[in-house]
Amino acid sequence: MDELLQHLVNALILGSTYALLGIGLTLIFGIMRVVNFTHGELYALGAYAVFLLEASLGVNFFLALAIAVIVGCAVGAAIELVLLRPLQGADIDTTMLVMIGAWIVMQNAELLYWGGASKAIMTPFPEQPLQIGPIFVSWLRIFVLVVGLALIGATYLLINRSKLGKAMRATFQDRDTAALMGVNIKGIYTATFAIGSGLAAAAGALLGPVFLVTPTMGDLASLKAFAIVILGGLGNITGATLGGFILAFVEEIGAGYVSSGYRDGMGFLIIIVVLLLRPTGLFARAERIG
Amino acid sequence: MKKFAVAMASLSAAALAGALMTSATAQTIKIGVNEPLTGAFAASGNYVTDGAKIAADEINAKGGVLGKKLELVIEDNKSNPTEAASVAEKLMVRDKVPVMMGAWGSSLTLAVMPKLMEYKVPMLVETSSSGKITTSGNPYIFRISPPSAVEAAAFGKIIDKLHIKKADFLVINNDWGLGTAQDFGKMFKDHGITVGLVETMDQSAQDMSAQLAKFKASDADTLIVTSAVEQLTLVFKQAAALGLKKQIITTGGSQNPDQLIDQAGGAVNGTMHLTFFAPWAPEAAADPQATKNFLAEWKKRGLQFAGVTESFRGYDAIKTIAAAIQKAGKADPEAIRAALWETELTGLNGKIKFTKAGPAGKESGQSIPTVYLIKIENGKVVIPQG
To answer: Is B205 within 8 Å of A116 when comparing Cβ atoms?
Structure first.
């Protein structure tokens, strides 16, 4: 029983960062119809930004986290302006190839600048874990969970309550009509890509100190983000949130009770099953699929 | 059109540079180096390569081998077995190296092995520990690192002092980890130690909390962990975060204890590690002077001290290869292969001499290295006496 509780706590924390990754990706796909292969690299960039700020420039850890998210948004906006805007109207294959190219360039740039050896980010949290009955949780992970949930909440409010969110939802439902109603579609695209990228950078910045920072850390993150998005239904934010938590629970329970060697395989097994039974994803509504 | 012209110009520049390089290298003896410089094992692969460079520079400063300078042709296998095989092929076919060093991990080395048979070029294995490497009948394999059975046997000599009753295993899910679990498990049974859970972790896995939660619930007193330094760092941090309080011993010699102390902090206190080089006490090494020189050179190059427990392998490997080339009298694969059998030297780890291993008629060479058990206490490495 204690073991099960520990697994559930682990999964909850992991799930919050998975959800962040998934929301960012699904937002970009849903609104822009762009398969964003640079998502994992923005995740890595978030982690490297914290490392650089903290280890080399001596910036406070919490401030470094905030700056990393802003850097993520800025790089995301730059990618949209430089690479995607000129491609407006191009077919999905062209956009995909450009994004794959950007992914490779970014990963190798990280490798060139920081080298292949892993980096560790130090945090002000105590090494001694928090003990609640039989359950142990590190303070850092609790912090990750809290910030993760706060960011998910903030994204919800932004999409559902703000004017920008309304314009984004309008673009999401029907781009041309939204444009006719006076929505600045180009601006919405840039904002969407910036927000999605910022969320990926936030996930990386939060998980960087939990794990280690390496140039290839984005690959697995990217793969998982795609899995989460497919699980929840493409373009569905609630789906991506739930998908993130489901993937984390399946991985954690699968690794704990079935086979730890296939931990990363468990999630994909679930995705195959979901795609067989509900090809549009677990939480997809028909009109949301383009 | 302008773009095309630029492309042509850079192409021809590259071709010219290539031509210049070939003419410059005619006077050197090439040694292929096939290491993971990026990917999951990047830290270790870079350290080994740095060690190899020190050995080559040291030999070249003394006039080289057979009157020629040694030239390391270094390729990155990206911690990926498929890449390791294609890089080996590139080294043998395009660079025409007469001998290679590589490929760090067991799965990487095993992927290269069929290529050695195909092109008949010997390879000195500096790190890999899977038993399969020397028992599968590949006469081009010469290994200076201990297979897990040898490591287990060396550990067996001191294990009774640790009073282990039951041990669980957490190993990397590849030939190295699985081989270790098997060989150490066998040795444990001979010493009356019960083997409990055997859990694996994917080489790129970052979250081992699920496995560690299982170990926490088990009644074993000791956890044996096999992986490279990056993953070990995560295991220690996560074990501490889960409040796992067991004796943890790591195997495989790729722990870089100083890096662990640096990156995992207090989480590594009280842990023990089987290593193959003890730079913390150079005076106790097989060749104290060479060890001190190596450590001084490492420091002079501004490299991290944490890397020396890994880098000595590259140093010893290149020294061994150079000695074999010298003995062979020419830089020819077959002559070097024959000479390796007669090569004898004292490396940083200890005596290097190959004995036959594997099926008769196509034996691989295996040298039996020294194994040290070290402990980390209060952020410092100590070598338990006895």
So the answer is: no
CA B327, chain centre distance (Å): 25
- For tokens 């890449």, name the residue: B83
Q: What percent of chain B has pLDDT over 90?
A: 66
CB contact under 8 A, A116 and B38: yes
Looking at CA atoms only, how far is residue B269 from chain A in angstroms? 12
Which of A144, A250, A263 best tests the B interface by mutation, with the highest count of B CBs <10 A? A263
Check residue A215 and give its pLDDT.
Answer: 86
The nearest alpha carbon in chain B to A110 belongs to B38
For residue A82, count other CB atoms closer than 10 A to its CB: 10
Q: Which of B193, B204, B252 is nearest to B225 (CA)?
A: B252
Counting one residue from A and one from B, how many pairs have CB atoms under 8 Å apart?
105
Nearest-CA distance A24 → chain B (Å):
21
Element (H, E) at B92: helix B81-93
Residue B24 CA, distance from chain mean position:
31
Which residues lie across from B169 on neighbouring strands?
B198, B224
CB contact under 8 A, B211 and A220: no
**CB nearest to A7's CB, from B40, B173, B210:** B210
- Residues B298/B54, Cβ–Cβ less than 8 Å: yes
Quick check: B22 pLDDT over 60?
A: no
Q: What is the mean pLDDT of residues B302-306?
A: 87
CB atoms under 10 Å from CB of B15, counted, come to: 10
Does the beta-carbon distance from A212 to B211 stay under 8 Å?
A: no
- The low-confidence residues of chain A, meaning pLDDT below 50, are 286-290
The 10 Å Cβ neighbour count of residue B311 is 29
Is the model's pLDDT at B137 over the cut of 70? yes
Given a cut of 70, is residue B355 above it in pLDDT?
yes
Distance from CA of B68 to the nearest CA of A (A): 32
Confidence of residue B12 (pLDDT cuts 50, 70, 90): low
Using only C-alpha atoms, what is the Rg of chain A? 19
The distance in angstroms from the start CA to the end CA of chain A is: 45
Residues from chain A contacting residue B46 (CB–CB below 8 Å): 115-117
The DSSP annotation for A251-276 comes to: HHHIIIII-GGGHHHHHHHHHHHHHH
Mean predicted lDDT score pLDDT of chain B: 89
For residue range A18-73, list pLDDT tens digits in order. 999 999 999 998 888 888 999 999 999 999 999 999 988 999 999 999 999 999 99
> What percentage of chain B has pLDDT greater than the value 70?
93
CB contact set of B6 (below 8 Å; sequence gap of 6+) = none
A59-67 CB contacts, 8 Å cutoff, 24+ apart: A61/A121, A61/A122, A61/A123, A61/A124, A61/A209, A64/A205, A65/A147, A65/A202, A65/A205, A65/A206
**Nearest chain A CA: its distance from B345 CA (Å):** 32
Give Cα B298 distance to the centre of its chain.
17
Alpha helices in B101-228 (DSSP H): 106-119, 132-135, 148-156, 175-190, 209-217
Is the CB of residue B287 less than 8 Å from the CB of residue B119?
no
- A118 part of contact set with chain B, CB < 8 Å: yes
Contacts of B245 in chain A (CB under 8 A): none
Structure tokens at A250: 């399946």
